[in-house]
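Per your request, structure below.
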């Protein structure tokens, strides 16, 4: 069950992002800012909130339905699911699935990896590995590979997802070679 959940979460997040691009030459310092005005949606639309939601539902419904069907097809066929990382693991799992269905792919990666981190930490703690109680995802993944809880392909995919996540959750200077903005532009 653990491998299926892990594979599904990685599949959800990795299907969205292109492979990592090799670094390019440095650019002059650049400050990127985003300005939002009160009452205007992030998509720079002047639509009222209800109109905006209606438009979003009409435009995005087919994509959401396809992603929901993908989840249903790849989900484990079980009456009950156990979340060894405790209630927080369940919340993270549900939020990651919800974000995937609604096309919030960065949130899917962040929450999916948080779920995996909580679950692995919980499994290691339950097996007596108290030294990994507060370990980060990188160390937990290496230990899971060593215990054969995940295979090499799963490890490689999770490492890729972690590299996508890191510039989202940890500050990088503007246009640093591993930021999403840099990879998009270059």
């Amino acid at each position: 069950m653990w491998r299926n959940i892990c594979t599904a979460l990685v599949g959800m997040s990795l299907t969205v992002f292109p492979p990592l691009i090799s670094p390019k030459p440095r650019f002059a310092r650049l400050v990127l800012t985003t300005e939002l005005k009160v009452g205007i949606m992030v998509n720079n639309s002047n639509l009222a909130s209800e109109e905006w939601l209606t438009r979003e539902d009409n435009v995005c419904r087919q994509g959401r339905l396809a992603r929901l069907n993908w989840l249903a097809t790849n989900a484990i066929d079980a009456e009950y699911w156990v979340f060894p990382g405790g209630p927080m693991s369940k919340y993270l799992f549900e939020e990651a699935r919800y974000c995937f269905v609604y096309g919030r792919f960065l949130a899917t990666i962040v929450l999916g990896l948080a779920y995996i981190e909580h679950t692995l930490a919980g499994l290691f703690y339950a097996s007596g590995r108290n030294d990994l109680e507060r370990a980060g995802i990188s160390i937990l993944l290496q230990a899971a590979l060593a215990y054969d809880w995940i295979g090499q392909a799963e490890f490689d995919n999770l490492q890729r997802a972690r590299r996508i996540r890191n510039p989202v959750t940890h500050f990088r200077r503007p246009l640093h070679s591993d930021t999403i903005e840099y990879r998009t532009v270059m």
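The first helix runs from residue 2 to 14.

Regards,
D.
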